[in-house]
Write a structure and sequence with these properties.
The chain is α/β, with parallel strands linked by helices. The protein folds into 3 domains: 210 residues, FAD/NAD(P)-binding domain (3-Layer(bba) Sandwich), CATH 3.50.50; 92 residues, Flavocytochrome C3, Chain A, domain 1; 103 residues, Fumarate reductase/succinate dehydrogenase flavoprotein-like, C-terminal domain (Methane Monooxygenase Hydroxylase, Chain G, domain 1, Up-down Bundle). 35% of the residues lie in helices and 16% in strands. The protein contains 17 helices and 20 strands. Strands 1, 2, 8, 9, 10, 11 and 18 form a 7-stranded mixed beta sheet that branches. The longest helix is centred in the C-terminal third of the chain and has 23 residues. It starts with a strand and ends in a 6-residue tail after the last strand. The structure holds flavin-adenine dinucleotide and succinic acid. The site of flavin-adenine dinucleotide (FAD) has 43 residues, from helix 1, helix 5, strand 9 and helix 13.
């Protein structure tokens, strides 16, 4: 099937949905999403949205907090833009029907503000401890009432359509081979730079088991994060780095993948898989303790339990290794039980469901992969290096987060950049002369239904385990190279399998996980220093002389 639309939006989290709501004013919008429409990292966000609203706060302070946390790698212009547009974005969410938590004042009420790590002021706008679910609900309600928008659930994008698809009619599997060899000279601009255009994506309809062709004047990658590249993560199943892998294969610039953020406090319990204990709990007064009840964060940073995430996660990692413990404990038992229940009802109930009453007992926690600070490189308009391809939200590397993201800056970043991308894309959609080239259908010749599915599950687990053990919070060249060698072998086997097999969601995701894992290691090996989220014991110092720059890769990186 072929679907033609003005805008193709890949992903239905905050980045995709907020873009779609704007884009619907200018043209037709198809949103594809690989599972149910609400399944996204957005849906699980707890803490909230950082925004300067308090009388004792200022844009300058929020900008400074963001730049300090990003350890020299943030783009100041991007940070300033995002911070200054904060109040406008929160207002837009209110207009779209998001119900944020309010607090009573003598004269009426105002938005309640929480505090999180790395922030010098209370500035986190939230909807209880379920901010993301409330945003997702409101945006989906709104999107569903727009006649210009169609949502396609259970549609997983396989690859972006670019020049090389026009030239090479090939079985699906061949797409796995070197992209460099596919690039034709006609894709080079007069300056000799390769110029690639995107016309949409090949998409597997997982209900019908068929590959559709979505053709669009403008394509937005809003596919979210890559936490599932690691064994332990706060991210849901969808976060397999598909957008980064697709953009990489298509030839877009990718940057800073070494900066995977580990959240310090995910619930440590066999039944608590992927469950986050929000940083807002420490903002509220929660204290991290070792098994014997000792508070330890003051040893590591002046801000103690509210130090930036990289520092807290590394401190926990060090305490665990030094003591041989499996977890540390987050303690709010000294705080008012009623207030705890009222401020964190979802976290309270979830802990209760696994037998922990957080008002009486400390909660066992460990760090887990949480947020990808790097991604598909964009400018201030969300433009990637591929013509008519935009990227916003967690999949993008916009320059806002640098080497470490400040808590609760990502929902805001997604909103601001999706709006920027919409504004920039108007000229393309309004171009009366726009035509699509002849684009071939997906070709599955010489591919078969495979029976070795058990191998796929093994490969996935093996990559996740290797990434967790060797490419985690603390790295070394030896560990990185060991992981690289092993994952490279697994990736080659996956490519072989992919070439002769009919695509399935599991196979698509596994291939992407393998690609992103390799790219993370590639970036990590290229940065011979320690900065922000990237800590390498062979180079424990920050080296501004050589590495005060992004790690940028193109599709030759793995060849
Ligand atoms: P997502 O919300 O992840 O959406 C991605 C979408 O793309 C999904 O719909 C997915 O199904 C779809 N998709 C992916 N691949 C494909 C494909 N191949 N084909 C089709 N569809 C695809 N940030 C904050 O600022 N504040 C917080 O309080 C906060 N709390 C968090 C708590 C948790 C537990 C987690 C996991 C993250 C949190 N974050 C928070 C981070 C923030 O939630 C995310 O960075 C943000 O929601 C990302 O939005 P997004 O739209 O870019 O991606
Ligand atoms: C949290 O609530 O701790 C998550 C905030 C974030 O990831 O920005």
């Amino acid at each position: 099937m072929e679907i033609r639309t003005d805008y193709l939006v890949i992903g239905s989290g905050i980045a995709g949905l907020s873009f779609a709501l704007e884009a619907a004013k200018a043209g037709t919008v198809a949103i594809i999403t690989k599972k149910q429409d609400s399944e996204s990292n957005t849906n699980y966000a707890q803490g909230g949205i950082a925004c300067v609203l308090a009388p004792d706060d200022s844009f300058d302070l929020h900008i400074e907090d963001t730049l300090r946390t990003g350890r020299g790698l943030c783009r100041r212009d991007a940070v300033e833009m995002v911070v200054k547009k904060g109040p406008e974005m929160v207002n837009r969410l209110l207009e779209w029907g998001v119900n944020f938590t309010m607090e009573r004042m003598e004269a009426g009420e105002r938005l309640a503000l929480e505090r999180e790590g790395g922030h010098s002021k209370s500035r986190i706008v939230h909807a209880s401890d379920l901010t993301g679910a409330e945003i997702e609900r409101a945006l989906l309600d709104r999107v569903k009432s727009e006649k210009n928008i169609t949502i396609y659930e259970d549609h997983i994008a396989i690859d972006l359509i670019t020049e090389h698809h026009l030239r090479i009619l090939h079985p699906a599997g061949n797409m796995a081979t070197s992209m460099r060899s596919r690039m034709n000279d006609s894709t080079k601009s007069s300056s000799g730079q390769r110029k690639i255009t995107c016309w949409g994506a090949y998409v597997l309809n997982t209900r019908r088991g068929e590959v559709d062709k979505f053709l669009a004047k403008v394509t937005l990658l809003a596919t979210g994060g890559a936490g599932k590249v690691y064994l332990h993560t706060t991210n849901p199943e969808i976060a397999t780095g598909d957008g980064i892998a697709m953009a990489y294969r298509a030839g877009a610039e990718i940057a800073n993948l070494e900066f995977m953020q580990f959240h310090p406090t995910s619930l440590y319990h066999p039944d608590g898989k992927s469950f986050l204990i929000s940083e807002a709990v420490r903002g509220y007064g929660g204290i991290l303790r070792t098994k014997d009840g000792q508070a330890f964060m003051q040893k590591y940073h002046l801000m103690g339990d509210l130090a930036p995430r990289d520092i807290v996660a590394r401190a926990i990692d060090r305490e665990l290794k030094a003591r041989g413990d499996d977890c540390v404990w987050l303690d709010v038992t000294h705080l008012d039980p009623e207030e705890t229940r009222q401020r964190f009802p979802h976290i309270y109930e979830r802990c209760k469901s696994v037998g922990i009453d957080m008002t009486l007992d400390p909660v066992p926690v460990v760090p887990a992969a949480h947020y990808m600070c790097g991604g598909v490189r964009t400018d201030l308009w969300g433009r990637t290096t591929i013509v008519n391809l935009y990227a916003t939200g967690e999949v993008a590397c916009t320059g806002v987060h640098g080497a470490n993201r400040l808590a609760s800056n990502s929902l805001l970043e997604a909103l601001v950049f999706s709006r920027q991308a919409y504004q920039d894309s108007l000229t393309v959609v309004r171009d009366k002369g726009f035509t699509f080239p002849e684009i071939p259908d997906w070709n599955e010749e010489n591919t078969f239904n495979a029976e070795e599915w058990v191998l796929l599950a093994h490969d996935r687990l093996e990559i996740q385990q290797l990434m967790w053990d060797y490419v985690g919070i603390v790295r070394s060249d030896l560990r990185l190279k060991r992981a690289q060698k092993r994952i490279c072998l697994i990736a080659e086997e996956i490519e072989e399998f992919y070439k002769r097999t009919k695509v399935t969601p599991d196979l698509i995701e596994l291939r992407n996980i393998a690609t992103v894992a390799q790219l993370i290691i590639h970036c990590a090996l290229a940065r011979k220093e320690s900065r922000g989220l990237h800590f390498n014991t062979d180079y424990p110092q920050q080296n501004d002389g050589k590495y005060l720059r992004d790690t940028v890769i193109t599709n030759e990186a793995l060849e």
